[in-house]
# Entry
Amino acid sequence: MIRQNEQSSRTIRDFGEQWTRYTDNSGYYGSANFFADIWGPLASGMVLPDARIADIGAGTGRFVNILLDAGAGHVVALEPSAAMNVLQANTADRRDRITYLRATGDRIPSDATLDYVFAIGVLHHIPDPLPVLEAARRALKPNGSIFAWLYGAEGNGLYITVLRMMRAIATRAPHVVVASMVWLLYVPLRLYIFASHIFPLPLRAYMTEVLGKLSGSKLRLVVYDQLNPAYAKYYRREEAEKLFAAAGYRDIRLYHRHGYSWAVQATNPPSATAIP
# Structure
């Protein structure tokens, strides 16, 4: 438990430093099209206009703004790190539709009566995400849904092996070293994206349909985001299903996004068993 708490605290600190350095969400990176690409067919289960929503790990407000642009009535934005100041600045023009909570995901108010909870790129950075999922379920209305995006293990064997070796250095290094590593990876990645347009390379769809649409600065940010956090887990399908089932969700649906990650939709039962 002590080890998990240390990892969680350090990961929160890492993201605080990251999102106070990289505050801009412009271009495809912060677009509704990027958001839709995450969910694929699961997006058909979203009715966002007038919905009450929580965004766990809201960071710089990228998805808060997207949700509000889509018509969400109110967003509870949870961000435990120093990035809260950036989040508030980036969403200041619609703050009357936002509740800001500098808190971890397990602190969602149980009386929030939410239609949806979003956890995008968050759960795989939490050593024990079960309390977060349980708290989200308590905050959801009956038949409300959680949507989560997770790093996937399937189809990523070589990538994960290489990344773990690099993270062994990056997670112990100061920002200037990590930023230098990003630049070293950026040019080969650009070349790989270009080659993916011509040849059927691994992760071709992700390279051409997502990363290839990002500006240079946002592509480097994506690389930095892979190297920087202290903790990251890559989930297999059955692990993701068991995790959400253990938290009491039903109708768990998964979408293997571009063959490399998992988007998940799960429902709070209409007569949910109380979670202590």
The radius of gyration is 18 Å. The chain has two domains: 2-153+233-267, 157-227. The mean pLDDT is 94. Residues 17 and 82 are 7 Å apart (CA to CA).
